[in-house]
Every structure is written in C-alpha cells, then in structure tokens.
C-alpha cells in the first residue's frame, strides 16, 4: 500500500538522521527564540522610553510656547497701558456743546470701545478695586482715609486702573483704602488731612487722576 511505503520511507529517513542533531537544532532554536524575545522586550522598553521622552518634550515645548506667548503679550499690553491712561484722561476733557464736538465724542467713544475690546480679547482684565479688600499683590495704596461707609482695609476709591493678564499683574491699581470709622470725632481733635506724608510728586499724580475717577465706581 502506498501509505505504508511512505511510512517506511519516513521511518528510514528519521533513523538515518542522527538524534543528537535534532536535539541540537531544538536547543539552538530555543536559544534563538530567547535572544529574539530579549531583543523584543528591550526594543519595547526603548520605544516606551522614547515615547515618554517625546511626550515630555511635547509638554515642555507647549509650556514654553505658552509662557513665551504670555510674556510677549504682556509686554505688548504693558506698552499700551499709557495709551489707555490717555484715553481715560481724554474722557474727562470732552465737552459736548456743538455738533462738531458731538461727532468728536462719538468717534472717541467708538475708538475707546474698540481699544477695550482688543484688550479684553487679549485676556486683559482690570483689577477690581472699590468695595473689595485691599490686596498688596494687586493694589498700591497711596492714601488711607477714615470711612463711615467702608470697613477698614476696604478700597474706597481708585485713582488709576490696574490690569492683569491671566495670573500676571501688568500693573497694580492705585487706590485709597479705608482706615475704618476712625475715632469718635465729638471729643477728639480734628483728624489731620488724609494725604499727609504723601510726596508732592504722588500728590500731583493724585490730583491728575482725581479728575478721571469715575464716581459711578464707588457705589
Ligand atoms: C459722549 O458720547 C457718549 C455716548 O456715545 C455719551 O454717553 C457721553 O455722555 C458723551 N459725552 C459727553 C461729554 O457728552
């Protein structure tokens, strides 16, 4: 039978093949598998490491990019703040009596509005002042004054707007802070003027800003 013949041939072949040689082959294949498996696992570790490195690199780059962008934006905005101050000052000097002046006022209002919109879109926020707690990290106190209306440490008046860009303070606001209700005036000498001790330069600055203070802020 054909089947038997094939079986016999295979048997003869196997018998002619030295047994130790099969054993060698098996060992050598086993070694190869072990080596390849080691290599594979080393490669896997390497890929994981590279991937983690790249991830860190990507995060660091993104962080650097954002902080550089914030820095540049901050500088740009800082350079615009004096313009903003001039706008605020101009606001107090606009007098509308004639039609021409009304046109000027309208142009002024729309440019001012646009300017504020640009600053807002850049993430610039005004520092909160009147009615909030004085914070030396955000506010610069240039005056203290007794106040029946505000508790001690609460901001009473704003002289110059301060601005933040995200967490970054671009410049502090200049404020007057309440010193509390003060001593009972009925049996005390009159309190000395609140701006005592302030340098003439600052005084000048205050009177400069005084005009531009928006009294609607102090409610
Ligand atoms: C200028 O115009 C705005 C509105 O466009 C108005 O609210 C403001 O009162 C005007 N200023 C003066 C001084 O009339």
Automatic annotation (TrEMBL):
Listed Acidic residues bias regions: 207-219
Coarse class of the primary localization is cytoplasm
Pfam families hit by this protein: GrpE (PF01025)
Q: Where is this region: Disordered?
A: 175-219
Where it sits in the cell: the answer is: Cytoplasm; Mitochondrion matrix
Keywords on record: Chaperone, Cytoplasm, Mitochondrion, Signal, Stress response
Q: Which PROSITE patterns match?
A: GRPE
Give the signal sequence positions: 1-21
- Which Gene Ontology cellular-component terms appear in the entry? chloroplast; mitochondrial matrix
One BP annotation, GO: protein folding
Entry GO MF terms: adenyl-nucleotide exchange factor activity; protein homodimerization activity; protein-folding chaperone binding; unfolded protein binding
Role: Essential component of the PAM complex, a complex required for the translocation of transit peptide-containing proteins from the inner membrane into the mitochondrial matrix in an ATP-dependent manner.
Which family does the record assign?
Belongs to the GrpE family.
Oligomeric state and interaction partners are given as: Homodimer.
The record's section on HAMAP family has: GrpE
Q: What is the name attached to this protein's record?
A: GrpE protein homolog
Q: Which organism is it from?
A: Asparagus officinalis (Garden asparagus)
């Amino acid at each position: 039978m054909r089947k038997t013949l094939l079986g016999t041939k295979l048997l003869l072949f196997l018998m002619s093949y030295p047994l130790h040689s099969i054993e060698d082959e098996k060992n050598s294949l086993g070694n190869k598998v072990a080596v390849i498996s080691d290599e594979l696992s080393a490669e896997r570790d390497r890929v994981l490491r590279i991937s983690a490195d790249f991830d860190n690199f990507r995060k660091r780059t993104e962080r650097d990019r954002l902080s550089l962008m914030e820095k540049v934006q901050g500088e740009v905005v800082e350079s615009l703040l004096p313009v903003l101050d001039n706008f605020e000052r101009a606001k107090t000097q606009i007098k509308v009596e004639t039609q021409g002046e009304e046109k000027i006022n309208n142009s002024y209002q729309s440019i001012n509005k646009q300017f504020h919109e640009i600053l807002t879109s850049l993430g610039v926020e005004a520092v909160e002042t009147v009615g909030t707690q004085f914070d030396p990290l955000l506010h610069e106190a240039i005056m203290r004054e007794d106040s029946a209306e505000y508790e001690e440490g609460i901001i009473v008046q704003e002289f110059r707007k301060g601005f933040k860009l995200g967490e970054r303070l671009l410049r502090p606001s200049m404020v007057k802070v309440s010193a509390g209700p003060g001593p009972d005036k009925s049996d005390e000498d009159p309190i000395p003027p609140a701006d005592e001790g302030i340098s003439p330069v600052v005084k000048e600055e205050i009177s400069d800003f005084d005009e531009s203070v928006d009294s609607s802020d102090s409610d």
